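S1.2 Input.
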Amino acid sequence: MNDKHPIKFYSAEDLATSYNINKVQAYIAHFDFTRRDFTITDILEIHNVLKYLKLPVVDKNEAIIKFQRATQKLVSCYFAEREIEDLDGEYKTLYNPYKEDFWESFVDYKLIKKTSSIQFQRFIATNEVYIGSLLGQKAICDKYKVILKATLLKKPRYFELFLRKHDSATGEKYELPTGFTSSEVSDWARRYCELPDANINYLKQLAQWSPKHEHKIDDKVLLKAKRAVQQTFSTVFEEDKGFSWGIGVSIKSNVTEGIAFKSIGERAFQLDFDQNWLDDERDKPTLLNNFIYLFGFFDRIGRFSFIGSQNMSGSLFEMIQTESKYSYKLSLDFKIKKTLYSLAFLAYYDYLAHNDIDIEELFAFCYNELFADVFKNDQFFFTASPKENNYYTRSKALIPELDSLLKQYDFYQKDGEIDLELFELQSKSNGYRSIKSLSDKKFVYLDNEETKNLCRLLFDGQSSLSFPEKKKGLSSFYEYVREGVSLDDFYDMQQHVITQHLLVKGIIDYDAANCLCFKDLTVINLYKIMWESGYCPLFGFSDELLQRISNEVKMGNLRYGDTLFSEQESDYISYIMDNKKFNNALAIRNKITHGSFAKKSAKEHKDYYLELLIILMLYTVRINEELDYQDRKQADA
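S1.3 Output.
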């Protein structure tokens, strides 16, 4: 064994795999088959070497086959001849990454079968075994669950393991013993909140504990966690220890081309919109169209711009940050987009209000007059709240109007009309997730894990192909291919993935200069759109492109969506409006209608009112495009 750098297997996709395979080959070449004085460290290094030899990239020559046969028997006999006490002391000196291999071997080579609970407890106490090393093995958790449960509950810090297992968005792969009662969990959580150095990410996770969980935590403990988070944030900002970034949005005169974007330092930028153009174009249809064509609240293909990527791995900070499995993903991408477009919406709202134009009245014009004029459709109606009312009162009035709009559209898409008498009688209506589109092919989504994994490989900044050996500076394999890259620019293991997966499946080819290129760039770009936002609207696509999408659907790579809102938009609506799905939701509808937000400040009431107006904008754009689709379809008939 090389004492300084023992061989450790992590995964086939690890960037050090190619280097370690060379070490493995050297290890085998110098292995002494006559040796008998192996330590546990030696045995575990052999255990890791054998893992590397299972990889498909390793050529199984005669020397490797001989090594495998001999050492598999050697490792098996080593554990068969020993009790756990025989390894006492050696465990403490183990190379730290080998400790998980120790417990894996403890189970795999049946040492667990001859180790009693007393022997096990004595061993972990004597050797100060970190409990996390044990939780990777279900058999250990099952056999020694009483010991492990008592050990976990003894230390408040171990509550982090409980949170990561039961409330992690990524699904932690370790096990926990069963049998925790809700009172035990609540007390454990309380003691964690009282730690002076409790992790703020875990405190946030605890504060947002979902009632959907099997284990219930006392509300007083959840409030304690919330207050601990607030106190930690106050301390950070008071001592100026935080990391910051800034976004500015303004409407001012003489902005060239209507919009100007500029960076301010390394972590801030400013977006300016031209006031002159707004001053000159005051007709109501144009003021409505500004939501799309000037401010870009919907992009050129119709995606809602407030939604961040739910797929991208994000920054290193995001990767190490804890996230509840019931939470809406607040990625850095989402936060930047949400902040930028919310500020733009605020700027537009204030500009219109300053000019005595009320946004609610604009939307009332859209439903009550514009639809009738453009689509000859006078079925819809909307009543704006009095603009002299305060924001809280306007919010209370707007919420039922939003419900009414969805109910109106649902009636219309089902029956082709809105029967007002039936509309008044029918109190229950479909939720926003289940309301159908007039088209059974309104959206398209990635359909299976294989396609998602391909997209992750091509587009994600943390994929195994995003870090070539000889080229730097770009963020994904897709960008390197579009910029120009050859197979030789990648590490050996990366080359194996490219040749055995992407080339074989016809994703990648070689161009005339022997650089890598995408065989069907159109389809790849479609995949990229869906990877970025989770969905792609189809109403504006050409027949040729729709046929390409149809082919992908038939192959099982994509699937159609037939609802008024995309799945991602429905999630966003839920995040803003209610807590049906997400434990970190703003839940504005619930707070306003139940009166629990009445005593907040005027600024907070305005923030929530603007969030409701953004939802009104989303509803209106999606209903408008349905009527436009129907109008075009009837014209083509």
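S1.4 Remarks. Strands lie at 246-252, 259-263, 268-274, 443-446, 508-510, 516-518, 536-537, 558-561.
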